[in-house]
Write a structure and sequence with these properties.
Blueprint: E1 9-15, E2 21-22, E3 28-36, E4 39-40, E5 45-52, E6 57-64, E7 71-75, E8 81-89, E9 92-100, H1 115-127, E10 133-137, E11 146-154, E12 160-168, E13 174-179, E14 199-203, H2 214-224, H3 239-254, E15 260-270, H4 272-283, E16 289-293, H5 314-317, H6 323-333, H7 338-342, E17 349-354, H8 362-371, E18 376-381, H9 390-403
Parallel strand pairs: 2-9, 13-14, 13-15, 15-16, 16-17, 17-18
Antiparallel strand pairs: 1-3, 3-4, 3-7, 5-6, 5-8, 8-9, 10-11, 11-12, 12-14
């Protein structure tokens, strides 16, 4: 979680457990401090809410700062999950979580019996589109190290989805990284890797040709926000279906691209892109490794186990109080759940999770990680919210080097 603080009031909640991973029944401990104008407050009340990974509320109470500031908060879990401590005062807020045997967290919903058939049939529809991927040279957008291209993908429903690719100018063949950005982003220009020795592909998920006009681009970014719920609860019409198919088509296209080295084809994404890393790892046979950072779109059924579901909280936010609609959405969500794609990954996978993340709850990320049956590693950043610190990003880069042939 990114602390929500006003200019003069700040709340800080820090996991101070002696171990990163606790056994069920052990005690979790958090340190809380509240400041105003940089000074520790000596009076006033704050609200303390303790929950099962942002789901079921376990305890809530008022704390009087006259009793001490900083102060400690403790608690425990008897089942595998994350014990979340959130503290609010006025408009300032912060939260952190402690992990209790998270490697035993299981998804809240079972995988549908026809999951594989649904996606196999969907992929066949995309493959029936003639020449679905088109590269458009962008000579004015390259730099000294790389040339640039725009990517246009046609979907089975006559839509266009766009992305960009940069390719080293020097002779040779190179590894490929494919990326999907976070949900709030609409990439409108090529992205250049500093190495100058990687083919880098970034794919948007929206049916928009990204504008380079700043005002129009901002309007486009605003327009994409509600699209995460478009098409619900029909799995054939859900917005992300054709996005998944388009990105999968681009990966397939890259296997015949003459500058690819034929050995290293990696998907690396964060948040929405982290969800897509799991999606692509599960349905695309050409990838050689996947990196899923602070993974979105995981464990949509986590709410059934008392935990918070992962972003975009389909069950909780998309149907208000309409129980019948919620149930339909929940059933559909299993076809777009990272946990079910994760179980089909057959290549090395790296997952990164932040214990302070309230966008992609750590329990939902672990539900996906635990579903992976291939070679895997998880990086746990106890003090990170919806992002990964520079220190842990370096660990990811080191893991990636041999899988890109860069050692």
């Amino acid at each position: 979680m990114m602390a929500k603080n006003s200019a003069d009031l700040s709340v800080k909640v820090e996991n101070t457990c002696s171990e990163t991973i606790l056994k069920c029944g052990k005690t979790a401990e958090f340190s809380v401090e509240i400041r105003k104008d940089g000074e520790l407050l000596k009076k006033g009340e704050c609200n303390v809410a303790l929950s099962n990974d942002g789901g079921t509320l376990l305890k809530e109470y008022k704390y009087n700062l006259a009793d001490g500031n900083p102060f400690k908060v403790t608690g425990t879990m008897n089942t595998p999950s994350f014990f979340k401590c959130q503290v609010d005062m006025d408009k300032a807020s912060d939260a952190s979580s402690a992990a209790f045997e998270p490697e035993k967290i299981v998804p809240g919903l079972p995988c549908p019996d026809d999951f594989d058939k649904f996606w196999a049939d969907s992929v066949k529809r995309q493959e029936a589109v003639p020449n679905p991927v088109r590269l458009i040279p962008m000579p004015q957008s390259g730099n000294k190290k790389c040339e640039a291209f725009k990517i246009e993908v046609s979907t089975p429903d006559n839509e266009k989805i766009y992305g960009y690719m940069t390719v080293p100018r020097k002779d040779g063949k190179f590894p490929v990284i494919v990326n999907v950005p976070g949900a709030s982003k609409l990439v409108n220009a090529p992205i250049f890797r500093p190495e100058g020795s990687i083919i880098y592909v970034v794919m948007n998920v929206h049916r928009l040709d990204p504008s380079t006009d700043p005002k129009e681009w901002q309007a486009q970014k605003k327009a994409i926000r509600p699209l995460r719920y478009a098409g619900l609860p029909d799995r054939e019409k859900y917005y992300y279906r054709n996005s998944i198919l388009a990105v999968n088509a681009v990966i397939n296209y890259m296997t015949s691209y003459p500058r690819w080295d034929g050995k290293h084809l990696v998907f690396d994404g964060a948040s929405q892109g982290g969800g897509f890393a799991l999606f692509m790892g599960g349905i695309n046979k050409h990838l050689t490794a996947v990196v899923s950072r602070i993974s979105a779109m995981c464990d949509h059924g986590g709410c059934l186990a008392g935990r918070s579901s992962g972003w975009p909280l389909l069950y909780m936010q998309a149907a208000a109080d309409d129980k019948e609609q919620k149930d339909k959405i929940l059933k559909m969500s299993a076809y777009f759940d990272g946990v079910n794609f994760a179980g089909r990954i057959k290549v090395p996978a790296l997952v990164a999770v932040g214990f302070k993340d309230i966008t992609c709850s750590p329990g939902s990320v672990y539900a996906a990680y635990n579903s992976i049956n291939s070679e895997k590693k998880i990086i746990t950043d106890v003090q990170a919210g919806h992002g990964i610190s520079r220190e842990y990003s370096k660990q990811i880069d080191e893991w990636l080097k041999p899988r890109l042939g860069l050692e």
